[in-house]
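Record pair follows.
FIRST:
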Amino acid sequence: MKISGQGPVNPFKIYNQQQQLKQKDGKFRPVGDTLELSPEAKKVQELVRLGAELPEVRVELIREIRSRLENQTYHVSPQQLAESILKSMQEEK
């Protein structure tokens, strides 16, 4: 049996040849791999950055509730309290 063909392929040789061809056409192109983010990925990246800048504690809300507690004007309905307790118990499971 005779097998003819190209033989084993060297991926590094092919990669280097492609890089040299890119440089010969006179246009500047970075040598090596490149990455281009889609518009959606750029938006997600921006939202993550903005989220990281947000304070972990909502200071304004804490001040408002503290003030209402001190003035005895902060009231929670029994239904809201029961819903919060139930939600808390479900999250623990």
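SECOND:
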Amino acid sequence: MHSSFRLDSFRAGTAIVFPGMGPTTFAETAPFMLGDATAVELTGIADDVLGYSLVDRFRASDNDYSEAAQVAFMLNCVALAHWARRELDTSPEVVAGPSFGGKAAATFAGSLPFAHAVRMTAELARRTEDYFRTAHTDIVTCSFGRTPEPALREILAELAARGSWHDVSCRLDHDFHMISLPDREVDWLSGQVRKAGGLPLYTMRPPMHSAAFADLRDRAEREVLAELRFEDPALPLVDDHDGTLVTDAAGVRRMLLDGFVRALRWPDVVDTMKRIGVTDVVVCGQDSLFGRVPLTRKNFRLVAVTPRLAVSRAAAAPR
């Protein structure tokens, strides 16, 4: 696979999508993580890299986005993709990994050995926590749906008139967005969204996907990714920032780093998958967004591969 790989000549029927990370408990994933052969094997690799028991640390964690929770989420996504290949005869020709999902995408596509993906995930979790402990402590990222682009533009114009910094961090559908802004403006934003007929959803701290976090990107590049060796991926990846096909090692590395500073644009990913002929999307991991928004559901046949599905299929299999 080379960087000259052309969008206009590439065709793919099936894509695997690794979702962004949401709150995930140990109880929800334990039956799969402790029972699936691939998950158990990957957990052993993770334990060696981390120097502690991932299962024990994840079980004891009370933080939805702790280091252990992040590594476990990435691991389970990768294990589920292998399960889908094995049990559902899934044959992906392209991979997408919006937001946090880029870590699983990079290793599943063959650009980064799994052990290195574990190390990267843990180290980035530590750097991110340390960075936001003192930087941008007043900034959060708010998500909201049912707010079309024209209404959003009006709201952002009013926000600018108030003299408040803000940035569009994610576009998930024509009416589903995430905005980073000072936490003092959250109540105002929620009120404006409701006035426009929209639905405020949740507020994330630390924030994500903004050019304001360039120092964090630089630190991640210097202290984490500089120590890792990327290879050209065996499967092309769709960049979640602009929909381009990523086919070389440098592109994968850049895509992961750009996640700190560039907005996620899921409609661009969907457009690219449509153009290259994708008809089937297999979402591997616990997903509350990317496989559920109408933009995805109306364009592709979807299979949601979750720990619960894998465990239930195993329980129903003849013995």
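COMMENT: The chain has 13 helices and eleven strands.
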